[in-house]
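Q: Can someone sanity-check these two? First one:
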Amino acid sequence: MKNLKLTEKKFSRVRKVISVMMTALIILATCIIPAFAAEGDEVVTSFTKIVDLVFVVVRLVGVVFTVWGVLEFAVAWQSHDGAGRLRGITLMASGLLIVFAKEILAYAGVTY
């Protein structure tokens, strides 16, 4: 029993040391890599593609929220649940805000 507790303590300590060493290695690896900027619009074009991809993913999440809100509202309407209706309307509104986030940001003057 006593040896088992010592083994668990040693294993726990070794695991902590390895975790700290791996974290330090990851931090050092990301700090050491230099970034060379290319001349021209290649960097801007790739950045724009990444931003567009993020907005597409965000828009898909918004569509999922909107559909989920519509379904929840329909189920709440059928069961006469006032709290469920409110939750469904809230999900629909937040989903629509997420779907049109890019256009809302462009209208507000936020550029990327």
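And here is the second, same format, sequence then tokens:
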Amino acid sequence: MSRVALGARVSGDGRWPLQTVAQAVMYDLVYNVAESYQEASTAMDIWEASKLALFIWFVVPGFISIKVYQLIVPASYRSTSELLIDAVSYSCINFALMSWAVVYVEGSGLFSAHRWMYYAFYFFVLFVSPVLIVLLWKKIRTSDRFQWTMPHPTLKPWDFVFSNRSHYWVHVHLVDGGSVSGLYSSRSFASSAPATDQIYLEQVWVLNEDGGFDRMVEGSAGAIISGDRIKYVEFIDYEG
């Protein structure tokens, strides 16, 4: 049994006692989440009303934020179990930022007057707000002004360059002394973390005597080059 059954009872009008949740969360959040997962391993009592409400409020928004962030910012792979503490933390941040709106809605009588708006508001809090927070945080972290105080969220130059989806003429210099030159454009592709580095050039080109791009290799459908064969990559602006 958890020390505080957050949301264990439903009021007469069918609403969760969210103000009680807000008052108790800072004291019992981590204890109850850990206990819920431990007990669920032997009995599926996570589906009890108190623990289900706790899971929805303080795990689901955090997981949404984490997954959206992983989609837009390349990062190393982390297992779901390793992300649990982060999910709880990000859910708390989401709830803290939206707590003023929760208190206002709960005291406004919105549930009785416009029930659909009441449910739409909590859908926004649980599923939309975590996405917006991530998008805003990425915009802040990638701004030039913010770079003076914190590192860029993209860890590798490879991911930074190719995430822009710009078009380039490319010289790929290989560790064995050879090179592959071609066009990196809309149908080309480069892997991103946590995958190993690989690049697909949609066209392979023959160079002239001056090292410039002369013509496309006849019948070329491109080339895939593995990162372990690459010494460095040279980019030239493409105007097409």
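A (reply): Looked at the second one. The two ends are 66 Å apart (CA to CA). The first strand starts at residue 168 and ends at 174.
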